[in-house]
Amino acid sequence: MNELFVYNVIMDDDRLELVLTYNMTKIEAKAFKLCLIWEELVFQEFPKENHIKLRKKGDPRKSLLFKYCYKLANETNGLVEDKNYKNYILAQLQVLKTIRDGDVHALIDPQCLNGKKAWIRWEMWKSRHDKSLKNRVITAEEMKITASEQKIEKELLDTKSFFKKTYGKNPTQEDVTRAIQDRLIIKWLTLNKITPYYVLISPFVKKSLVDKTPEESFLFDLSVYKASINNQIENYFFKLFDNEAIPQNVDF
Q1: What is the largest CA-CA distance in the chain?
Q2: Count of alpha carbons within 13 Å of 219, Cβ hemisphere only?
């Protein structure tokens, strides 16, 4: 399992649509996604035990788990990079797993995510983790994870098919701008209706965002996808979305 932040780990989790349903703020959306990471990792580390989870119905912000993850998002704002939150939560679980009284390990509760002791556990785990990385040979493939061109081209083709069902054609600049303003793009990304490669390459998206980055506007960390974009992918994009081709004399 890679160490990218939740935006890339759980994009196929249907519950992400609740971010839109309950019109969550940016910090609430982040906390909610931390909750999903917690649920994934606590099951991974302790598959035979029951743990605190998000409520199955209604506003997830009323869950006890959300309370602790919201506190985590606030307390560590600017201290933990988005890409490291998965490891931060994993650190709490793995360190607590080693604290035992006979056959019984320490209590595993989302409260462990907050406070000075949590930060100490993170620093200790991270120090050991960083040392282990230095002691192993890192291959070129590990240094730069990229998706295959065939996979990306299929995702772009599927995106074009989705747009054809939605608009009857490729979207215009006005269609894209309206979809961004109405937050439809976030919904489509969340439900895998469109590929992140579309929003990263599309001149229409770039023009509609003005001064914002895709990450700021769509609440997803898209940095991992950028490494896979090359000239062949861009050329394929403009064959599919030929109405987005930029004339040479136009400068955004």
Answers
A1: 73
A2: 26
